[in-house]
Write a structure and sequence with these properties.
By secondary structure, the protein is an alpha+beta fold. It is built from 3 helices and 6 strands, in the order βαβββαββα.
Length: 109
């Protein structure tokens, strides 16, 4: 069994990934130290990479704003993402909030 890779902004940028599909309920690791939320996702790259996305605060807040706090409702959702630069040649993964709002508004109409 192959382990899922931890996804990072550099991988997202290099592979021109613009969307994740959430495959399983997002989880807070049971290590007693962190409230980090991780989600297993499928990327829209050529290989349809499956990996673990560690959500930053902006991502958590964007998803909660759109789906509510019940992470089960997020399963199967397509989340537009983009790599945001920080530091020297580093990237973080953020939710593309404009695209997410467009997507949600067409669903609720």
């Amino acid at each position: 069994m192959m382990l899922d890779r931890e996804l990072d902004g550099e991988f997202i940028k290099e592979n021109q990934i613009t969307k994740f599909v959430i495959l399983e309920e997002a989880k807070i690791p049971d290590n007693g130290f962190s409230s980090t939320v991780k989600a297993r996702v499928q990327c829209n790259d050529k290989k349809e990479t499956i990996g673990i996305w560690t959500l930053n605060k902006q991502c958590k807040n964007s998803l909660i704003d759109k789906f509510g706090s019940d992470s089960i409702k997020m399963i199967g959702s397509e989340i537009p993402i983009l790599p945001e630069p920080y530091g020297h040649r580093k990237f973080t993964i953020n939710v593309n909030e404009i695209e997410l709002m467009k997507k949600q508004s067409t669903i609720t109409q």
